[in-house]
Amino acid sequence: RVFTATYRSNNTLELPRCSSQHTGYAIHYFGLGLFHAALWADRPPFRVSAELRNDAAMSGGSDAAGSTGRGIIDLGLRRVRRILSCLGDPQTKWKAIHVAGTNGKGSVTAYLHAVLLECGHKVGRFTSPHLVEPRDCVWVGSSCISQEEFDSLDRDVGDAEHRLLDGNGGDSDCEKLTTYERLTVLALLCFARRGVDFAVVEVGLGGRLDATNVFEAPVLTVVTSIGLDHQKVLGNTVAAIAGEKAGIVKPGRPVVLGFLPDDAARVVLQTAERLRAPAALACRASAASFDSAEVWLARAAVGRHDADVAERWGALAPSSLRALGSYFGDGAEQLSWSRVLNGDMQLDNASIAAASLLMLRGSGELAWSEQQFAAGMRNVQWRGRLELGEWPALLVAASAAPSSAGAGVDPRWHRGARVVLDGAHNVDGAGAVRRFVDHLRSKFQREEGARTERGTDTTGAEGCRVLWVLALSAHKDCAGILRALGMRAGDGVVTTQFTSPTSMPWVQPVAAEWLLDLARSTGCQPYLCAAAPCVADAIGLVAREHPGRAPPITVIAGSLYLVGETVGLLDGLGDSP
């Protein structure tokens, strides 16, 4: 298709109303409020004004999933840097640990935050998007900041922004912050004012151009994993995406690589070598079984891993590679800890956190003991990621919602039924949920067999069914996520929609009915197939369809916004995130 774009003197491209799939730009809106565009050629920082129709290319195949909005797209960091300078560069007042990755970056951030706290430091934590409300992105110590402190910081950031705008006489080069940029600046300012020693900061999207990428000399950078997600923004190959995430690596500053595909690892290691940044590849810890609580990382195994890494990658990054085994404490033969977060991917995430802490010890930035490490890993807090709950509490919470969808159903009937909460917002994340659900299903089948032998089985033939409550964002690979979830014949499916965040109207769910049709097309032949307007109604619908006993496993997944609304119900509308 041919279209006309007007290039203006203030570095602005003005596009007509059009479908994004037919322009020379892959225009994509991102749930944290930061708009991006992936150009066919490198350009200086610029701005794009466009009215976009969120059509089939963005929604996974249906106009019904979309919405219309207007956005400003900026590929530079100048706004964030300018406002931080106006505020006295708060990001330079504490030691930063910067964490990027397709999946696992939030979990690794939570692990590092917990261990640093256990070491006696005052620690900040910034993650995104928020789960229940914006303030739960910003932690100092063992909890998120209060609403009063959040509001005060937000006013101060707004005042600084107004001073800049007024001082520039309406200069178009000085623009207002996006929602995500403002939240990022607020967090960095909070950490400086609170006098933290360290802050662990999670990248929102990509890395190179993310609003968090303002640290000149972080004490550590981490790239947890790289997979295909946000391709319209970051690129269509893992190598291209790795290039964006490697943008957080800084000259001479240590970097830890998680379990990356070879093409991605090569890009990050080449970046580290070019910047003379010490680099180490994480070594996977061991566990006795899928759900074993006890995990260990043996010094001997790390030594073998270091030798393999040197043989495989030594020629690519000869001056950068570091041996993690050399950073074990004197006489320590292994690191041991108890796993408290669910899922096999948490073994990888904890291993990456362990490698990160070893690098911090090796660089002299952090001293810690094996006891402090184990205590911190045991005390990690990270909600909504394969979080297990109980049906009674969820049903009571849903019944108390304005819709009263669960009213009249006795929660005692559902005692013992488990609920799994997880974002599962990309294909890799959905695969992790599938493996965890398979594990729960097998465990339930073993328990059911034992009850049958004792003559106490009360579940009947429907005992191992899984009920899926799903909502997905319009810009995701909906079909790919559903395939990865792997719903089976005999499972149940209830689709719903989350409420678009007030400050981010461009974050839109796909229509529940459209998602239900897509789920049917996977061939899972569900025993229950229904759509509900909100999560409270979906929970009530499931309860009414199972008046005697809830399905043993109910999975609420597909979007962190859906999970956030569910957690908000459980927590009394977000009073204690």
Question: Would you write up a description of this structure?
Answer:
The chain is of the alpha/beta class and 577 residues long. It is 36% helix and 17% strand. The chain contains 17 helices and 24 strands. An 8-stranded mixed sheet has the order 11-10-9-12-8-13-14-15, with helices on both faces. A 6-stranded mixed sheet has the order 19-20-24-21-22-23, sandwiched between helices. Strands 1, 2, 3, 6 and 7 form a 5-stranded mixed sheet that branches. Strand 14, helix 8 and strand 15 form a beta-alpha-beta unit. The longest helix is centred in the C-terminal third of the chain and has 28 residues. The protein is globular. The two termini are 48 Å apart. The N terminus and C terminus are likely disordered.
Properties at a glance:
577 residues; alpha/beta; 8-stranded mixed beta sheet; 17 helices; 24 strands; disordered C terminus
Briefly say what this structure is.
By secondary structure, this protein is α/β, with parallel strands linked by helices. It has 17 helices and 24 strands.
